[in-house]
Amino acid sequence: MKITKVLVSQPKPASEKSPYYDIAERYGVKIDFRPFIKVESLSAKEFRQQKISILDHTAVIFTSRHAIDHFFSLCTEMRVAIPETMKYFCVTEAVALYIQKYVQYRKRKIFFGATGKIEDLVPSIVKHKTEKYLVPMSDVHNDDVKNLLDKNGIQHTEAVMYRTVSNDFTSEEEFDYDMLVFFSPAGVTSLKKNFPDFNQKEIKIGTFGSTTAQAVRDAGLRLDLEAPTVQAPSMTAALDMFIKENNK
To answer: How many other β-carbons are positioned within 10 Å of the β-carbon of residue 204?
Structure first.
């Protein structure tokens, strides 16, 4: 079946130079962007149930911009005034710079890693071993950060501050696609929640990442495109090759 309409479960690209637009133009395909999931803050009441005092900590480890947004929004909601002495440790410089949205960057002690891997941030954390660290997290997370900090004898508290929920479709939204592209297992879960009677038939499904691919198989669906591969290291590269092959 020729592919003419694709739904990508990601926000619309900020740049008009996105490879997705090149693909749409090259093959005459309509590509829509519509996240199947969204991230929302815990309420102050929900957060308090964890019995964690933010001001008992002297440093915060941020693994994403989401973590920054929800940390500061919860502090605002609970009227917690963060002292200027608070130190911030971020996985990348881009995440570190994002803190400027909430505090004056030059007045703060901010550290960041070079590659985006939490392992590269550990040397900076170890240099400040006496700090009491707070790690804002999603309700869905692995123990990589916890295990690494425990291994290095770092005093820390993990705090769930935000969660991933299904971004439900409305009855007015059309759902008539030849192909669906997913980037997380939660997106696949959302598909089944929104469309419990979903019948794949000829609809192609593509995924990025091994856990998302497995989620599709576990849901009893047929996986038609799996990225990344050596030939296609990105989703757009994989999609380009797939549409080219299918639309001959």
So the answer is: 20
Backbone angles phi, psi at 141, to 5 degrees: -155, 160
pLDDT in tens, 69-90: 999 999 999 999 999 999 999 9
Give the tokens for residue 202: 């000829």
pTM: 0.72
Residue 107: its pLDDT value, please? 66
- State percent of the chain over pLDDT 90: 87
Is 68 in contact with 96 (CB distance < 8 Å)? no
What is the rounded distance in angstroms from the CA atom of residue 61 to the CA atom of residue 67? 9
CA dist., res. 197 & res. 36, Å (int) = 17
Q: Is 184 in contact with 212 (CB distance < 8 Å)?
A: yes
86-128, pLDDT tens digit by residue?
999 999 999 999 999 998 867 679 999 888 888 999 999 999 9
Chain centroid to CA 94: how far? Answer: 15
Return the CATH number of 40-164, one of 3.40.50.10090, 3.40.50.1370, 3.40.50.1980, 3.40.1170.20. 3.40.50.10090
Q: Tokens at residue 148, please? A: 């690494």
Q: Tokens 């009441």 appear where?
A: 45
Alpha-carbon dihedral angle through residues 165, 71, 134, 59, given to the nearest 10 degrees: 150
Positive or negative: CA dihedral 44, 50, 56, 62: negative
